[in-house]
Each structure stands twice: as C-alpha cells, then as structure tokens.
Specification:
With about 800 residues, this protein is an alpha+beta fold. It folds into 5 domains: about 180 residues, no CATH class; about 120 residues, 2-Layer Sandwich (Alpha-Beta Plaits); about 100 residues, no CATH class; about 160 residues, no CATH class; about 200 residues, no CATH class. Helix content is about 50%, strand content about 15%. It contains 25 helices and 25 strands. The strands form 4 sheets. Strands 1, 2, 3, 6, 7, 8, 9, 10, 11, 12, 13 and 14 form a 12-stranded mixed beta sheet that branches. Strand 17 and strand 18 form a beta hairpin. Helix 2 packs across helix 11, helix 2 packs antiparallel against helix 21 and helix 14 crosses helix 24.
Length: about 800
C-alpha cells in the first residue's frame, strides 16, 4: 500500500514538473533559512545551561536608588556580600566571587612580552559552582594556593604548544610569579562569562584583606558574586529577607543601596538594563530572538501558503483522477493518505536539499551572526530533530487542506469537470495570498527601516571628528609619570597631526566616572559624568567651544578648572556658567572646581544613550588619572603604527602596545543592529523570492482555468492590454488589502525597535508606500509573463481546448 502511494506520488511529480519545482524551491528556502534561524535562536537561548547547577545559580546585583527617577542596576557587588549570604541563610549552598583589577594582564614568555584581557581572579571553589572540563590538573586544588593559574586549552597551546604546562612558573607577570596548576577545555561559546586565564588570589597584602571585608567598597576593583541555592531553596524567599539583611550590613548606604539576584540562565539575554563596570561579559538582546524567530516562521508560512494555493488550484487538473479513483472503489481515507503522502514526500525531499543549502550558506551566515555553525556528522545529529519537525509540520499543514478538499470531490462532478473550484476555495486562496503579502510587506518595511537607521547612525554628526583617531591605552605607571615626554615623541612622528592624553575618550566603551555636583545656589546634587582632558584634546577631536576658554598649555594652573557640556549647563540651570564654582564630594572631602568654558554637546556614549551632563576636567584633576593617548593620524597608517610602536617600546619595555582606531570601536557598539540589518535583508529577499514563485505558479493555473474565457473575450474585441489588466487586477486588489493590514503591524514592530535608540529616524509614510509599491511590482512582475503570453495567444487555440 505504501509503495503504491509513493509510486503514485512520484508519477504525479513527474507529470507536473513545474508545480513540483516551484513547491520544492519554496520549501527548500523556507526550511533552510528557518532552520538556520532556529539554530541561531536555540544557541541564544542556551547560554549557561551547560552548568549542572545552572537553574540554582544566581548573580548578585547592586541596586543604586540615589535617584528615584532613575534607579540603576549593576552587575557588581561588595566583596563581603557572598560570604555573608552563605553564613546567614542555610538555603545558600555555595558562593564564588570573581575579581578584576585592571584591563589587561602582562607576562613574559621566552623573552617576549604578551598581554591578555580575558582574565579573572576567583575563589578556590570556582569549579564547584561552574562546570568546566579539566584536561590537566585537579579542579579541587587548582585555585587553592595563592598565585595559581588555570589556562584554557587554546592559551596552553598558544604559549606551550603540545607540552603539558602543569607546574610551569611564569616569573614575570603583572601580579608577580604565578604557577600553572590546571588546563581546562575552552569555555563554550554559549557562556556569558568568557575567560582565557583564571587566577587564584594574587593579592595577599593588608589592603586586599580590608577590601574583602569592606561593605562600602566600590572602587576600581570590581567583584562579581554568584550564589548557589540548595535543592529546596527559593530565590523569592531569599529576596524577602534582604531588607533586614541590608539594614544590618549597609550602614549609611542602607537607604540608597539594595541587593537583588539574577538567574544565571537569564544573564545573557536579560541584562539590557544592567550596567557593567568592565565590558567583560557577553550580552544578547531578547528582542532579536523574538524578531528572528518570527522571520523564520514568516518564511515557513509563506512557503506553506504557496503549497496550499498551488495544490488546491491544481485540483482542477487532478479532479478527473480523483473521480476515476472513487469510481473504481477508492475510499475517502485512502485519497487523503495519498495526497498527504505527496505533501510529506515533497517536504522530506526539500529537507534533504535544505541540508545541502545550509552547508553552503552557513559560512556566510556565520559572518553575519558572529557564530560558528557548520554541518558535520556530529552537528547534523543536533540539526535533524528540528529539520524533521519543521518538515513534518509543513507537510501536514500544507497537505491537509488540499488532501481533504480533493478527497471530498464528488466523482460524477469530477469526471464532468464541474464544481471542482468552488467559491469557498477561491476565497481561501485569496485570503492566503493576502496574508502572504502582509508578511512580505512587513518584511520589506522592516528591512528598509533597519537599513535607514544604520545609515543614520553612521552619518550622524556626533560632535567630534571620529576619523583617523588612534587611541593608545596607558597600562603602566611609569608611562603615566613620563606621559609628556612620550606624547612629544608621538607628535614628532610623520603622519601624526595631533597628540593628546585623557582619562577617558569620547565614545568610551568602558565605565565612565560619575560625580555628584552642586552649586552655591542649589542644595540638590546633580549626577554627571566626568572625563579629564589635556590642552590638546580639543584640537585632536575637533570639538567646539561655545563660550569661555579651554585649558591652557600650563596644565598645573588649571587643575581645579572644568568645562561643562551644554546638557550640564541646562541640568544645573546656569544662565551664566562661566566662573561658577562647583562643589564635588569625594572620599577625601569636598573639591571645588571653577567653570571656565562650555563645550557644544557631543556623543561621548553610543547613540543608544541620550547625551547626558558631563564635566571635563584637566588631565591632572583630583578624580581620575589619565588612561589614554589619542593621536590624529594621516598618510601611511601602517608606517605610523610601526613608528608609534617603536616609541612605546622605548618607554615601556614590559607592556606591549595596545591600541585601536576610535571609529572602529564606535561601530562595535552597533554590532547587533548591523547583524539584524543583514539578516533582515536576507529574510526580506528570500520572502520576496518565495512569494514570486508562488504567484508565478498561481498565475499559471489561474490563466489555465480561464483559457476559454480569455479566448471568447479576445474574439469579441478585447485588447491585449485589457486582458493583461483583467488578469492582474485580482492580485492588485489583494496587494491593496494586504497593504492596509500590514501597515499598522509594520509600524508597531518598527516603532518598538526604534525605541532602543535615543537618536533615531522617524517612521514616515514613505516607508510604507514604497513597501506597498514594491509588493505590487512583485505581484505584477510575477504574473506579467503568463498574462502577456495569454493575452497575445491565438483565441482559436483557446476555444478548441476541452
């Protein structure tokens, strides 16, 4: 029986090659693209689930309530929090802390200096909380002794090749002499916390001991605390006890600081409103998970609609076949199974072809998403379940209606060719085509809006010249003490137009210092950001001074002088800011600073953020030390970099030079949006193509059904243009209805997406009108060939057809 079903199915495919090709092409595109998006979304949702205790691990958060209208959440915590939670609450089974003191770790290997940025120091029980596979060493003791180091497999191979490094001593390291005690497999890509080096305690001084016990310590050292609840523990129960706990431990901060807990499995996608002190953890965006899931579903639905429309339309051709089968005794159930078998065969064949397409396309898809997906025998086993699921769902959904519709045809009417296509079937097809165009128009609008927003970001005036700015990290106290000499040496290099130093740079990716300031006329403090500039930053970045003066070349004379941006002037409500004395509290007492100038607003953060008030102090300010050189360069950049490196090595023999170009760094703030833009383009293009395939097939069968009608009209004098307009009018009306439905949907979706940018384009009618026009052109282009061919055909041939 099954063999007979399959034979019949393949005979039908061979007889209707165009129909089969169109369906398979649409399904291959729908299955392959939706499966790739499924793999991507599954990977995004799988972050940190590889830890056996992942459902019981929580990261502690610090809540800053000083500004009730702007409550802020931080991923860091005070160092004694974890031990206190564990000793006070039995439901806290374990805890571990990670620390960062500086941006990079420098060490010497074989006479050459290296630097690494992905590192932490951790408590000895780190590997009891998190699961990593040890290749060498013992996880129970690897971090037990101070100055121990655990390497990832890639770091071990980078520095030691195939040799086992256990027991090796690195004498010259940023932290002193350290001993390698373990090698682990590289952390999986779906971990929010990537690292290459994991140190045990590398600080044993009294200050460090004081830091670990200080409930008021929020310094340049950052601490991340993770707790593990026991099997019966409730995080809600623990949260309910926090007010009393905070009252007992936070002292004078108890009214403005609070603690919260974030599930480990939600960190990657749930940290959009949680601030990082260092950009150390990976973060995704939940909105894109929803968007990409919808895109994959849209494309599958469009492919399914194509199949249903073509299958029901093709019923007029297969009606006699159904009638003959019923006359010779075929039951309705057998016919349903037959047509479902055809549908499933088509989808399974499409699935097999889709695997090959995925293998070809994955390298390009990886470039867009930043992932490392591929088709191997190992990964294929993980892809097959979703592929089979998608194929079976499509097969049943796409084949069910045509199967039941064809199976219920009455044999006498079928043999006579009557009542094959009913008003109900035609109405359903129209609804499906309209829905297909709704999805297509939404995709077109989304593609255009995302693209325009990215163009807006790249072309927006951000208040300074970001081009050809080479930013060099200052990672040595010795360099800081000789910065003026080093800066002068940089300025002498051919191709270096300007050289400057600063504590932070516009477009900063690290945490920016925040201060609370007030004036003599205001008792309330204003939270502002702070950066320290030297006298050459204005010229280097080409920022605009709107009033007052800039810092003089004699930096020491301006150590207590500051500039404000326009937003700070407004926030402080200063009508004449020049000469205003600002009062700024610090741990050492209140500092007074005099305003000497006002800078035009510039974007010192990404365009996701609104320009906030900022104070610009001199390089030798009392709040923050210098951390960067910035060079304005031109000409042969490669030669400039070589010369800059030589100057750096002359003054700092231990720390390798670390630099980047600011425009590239700024672009990295919009990586997610760029990826979304490219995926939208890909999805939009494929949706249009699949829709064109379906419309081409549908137009062919519609014209075939109306062959005699067209011949009669032509005999009575209808022109070719009249017939073309007659055949195209149906699709034109359907596009019009789809446009009315799609416009509010697309507006809502894109308006919500644009809310993620403080500075964004406006959603104007042009986007929607252009999308509707494109959809209409697609419909007309897809049907024009068959319509024109029919319009110019000899009417006698049409009338002779049975």
């Amino acid at each position: 029986m099954i063999k007979n079903y399959l034979n019949t199915a393949f005979r039908s495919f061979a007889k209707n090659k165009a129909y089969t090709t169109i369906n398979i092409a649409g399904l291959v595109i729908g299955i392959s693209f939706s499966c790739m998006l499924y793999v991507y979304v599954s990977n995004e949702l799988s972050y940190d689930t590889f830890h056996t205790k992942s459902d019981r691990i929580f990261r502690t958060l610090t809540i800053d309530k000083r500004a009730p209208e702007n409550i802020r959440r931080f991923s860091v915590s005070v160092p004694p929090l974890g031990p206190a939670l564990m000793s006070n609450y039995p439901e806290v089974e374990d805890m571990v802390r990670l620390h960062r003191f500086t941006g990079q770790v420098v060490f010497e290997m074989n006479g050459q200096n290296f630097q690494e940025r992905n590192w932490f120091t951790a408590d000895p029980n780190f590997f009891n909380v998190f699961d990593y596979t040890f290749l060498s060493g013992d996880k129970a003791t690897a971090l037990k002794e101070p100055f121990s180091l655990v390497l990832t497999e890639s770091m071990s191979k980078k520095y030691f090749g195939d040799r086992n490094p256990i027991g090796e001593i690195i004498e010259k390291c940023s932290f002193g002499s350290v001993k390698i005690t373990g090698v682990i497999k590289d952390p999986p890509d779906n971990s929010h916390l990537p690292f290459d080096l994991l140190f045990s305690n590398v600080r044993t001084d009294k200050n460090w001991a004081n830091y670990l016990n200080n409930w008021e310590s929020y310094s340049y050292i950052v601490t991340y605390t993770y707790i593990v609840l026991n099997e019966s523990g409730s995080i809600q129960g623990l949260k309910s006890q926090m007010p009393e706990f905070q009252e007992r431990h936070l002292g004078k901060f108890r009214d403005i600081i609070a603690f919260d807990f974030q599930p480990l499995e939600e960190i990657y996608l749930g940290s959009a409103n949680i601030e990082e002190m260092y950009p150390v953890s990976r973060q995704g965006q939940r909105s894109y998970v929803y968007i990409f899931s919808s895109m994959g579903l849209f494309l599958l639905v469009i492919a399914c609609i194509n199949y249903i429309n073509l299958a029901t339309t093709k019923g007029m051709i297969r009606a006699r076949e159904v009638g003959i089968r019923k006359v010779v005794g075929a039951r309705k159930g057998q016919l349903i199974v037959q047509f479902l078998t055809e549908s499933l065969v088509i989808t399974l064949v499409s699935m097999v072809i889709a695997i090959g397409v995925m293998d070809i396309v994955f390298p390009y898809f990886n470039q867009i998403t930043g992932k490392e997906f591929d088709i191997t025998w190992e990964t294929l086993s993980s892809y097959l379940p979703p592929l089979l699921t998608i194929a079976l769902i499509i097969g049943f959904i796409s084949g069910s209606y045509p199967a039941f519709y064809l199976a219920k045809l009455r044999p006498v009417a079928s043999l006579r060719g009557k009542e094959v296509i009913t008003v109900g079937q035609i109405g359903l097809r129209k609804i499906l085509v309209i829905f297909q165009f709704v999805l297509t128009i939404v995709m077109i609008v989304s593609t255009m809006v995302v693209g325009q927003q990215m163009n807006f970001i790249q072309g927006k005036n951000i208040g300074f010249d970001k081009e050809h700015l080479m930013v060099i990290d200052i990672n040595s106290g010795e360099v800081r003490s000789k910065f003026q000499t080093l800066k002068n040496e940089y300025a002498k290099i051919p191709g270096v137009l300007h050289a400057a130093v600063s504590t932070r740079v516009p477009g900063e990716w690290k945490n920016i210092l925040e201060l609370y300031v007030r004036t003599n006329t205001s008792a309330d403090s204003l939270k502002t950001y702070f950066m320290g500039f030297d006298e050459d930053m204005l010229a280097t970045y080409q920022m605009q001074l709107t009033s007052g003066r800039y810092f003089s070349s004699n930096g020491h004379s301006d150590s207590s002088s500051v500039l404000l941006n326009e937003s700070a002037v407004k926030a402080l409500r200063l009508t004449d800011p020049l000469g205003t004395v600002l009062k700024i509290p610090t741990d050492e007492g209140e500092v007074h600073a005099t305003v000497i100038g006002v800078l035009k607003d510039f974007h010192f953060q990404s365009l996701h953020e609104k320009i906030a008030p900022i104070i610009i102090g001199a390089w030798n300010n009392p709040f923050q030390i210098i951390d960067y050189f910035t060079l304005k360069v031109s000409g042969d950049i490669k030669k400039v970099i070589e010369a800059v490196t030589l100057v750096h090595e002359k003054f700092d023999q231990f720390t390798p030079i670390e630099y980047h170009f600011l425009d590239q760094q700024l672009e990295s703030s919009y990586v997610a949006e760029k990826r979304a833009s490219m995926i939208f383009r890909m999805g939009g293009g494929l949706s249009i193509f699949v829709s064109c395939l379906g419309l081409l097939g549908l137009a062919s069968y519609n014209i075939q059904r109306r062959t005699k009608e067209l011949g009669i009209r032509k005999v009575f004098g209808a022109s070719g243009l009249h017939l073309f307009l007659l055949l195209s009018s149906t699709f034109t009306k359907q596009v019009g209805f789809a446009f009315l439905i799609a416009t509010p949907v697309a507006w809502y979706v894109m308006n919500e997406w644009l809310k993620g940018f403080e500075y964004r384009i406006s959603l104007h009618a042009g986007f929607f009108l252009l999308a509707g026009t494109i959809a209409l052109v697609i419909a007309l282009a897809s049907t024009s060939y068959r319509a024109l061919k029919s319009a110019h055909a000899n009417p006698l041939n049409s009338l002779r057809q049975e």
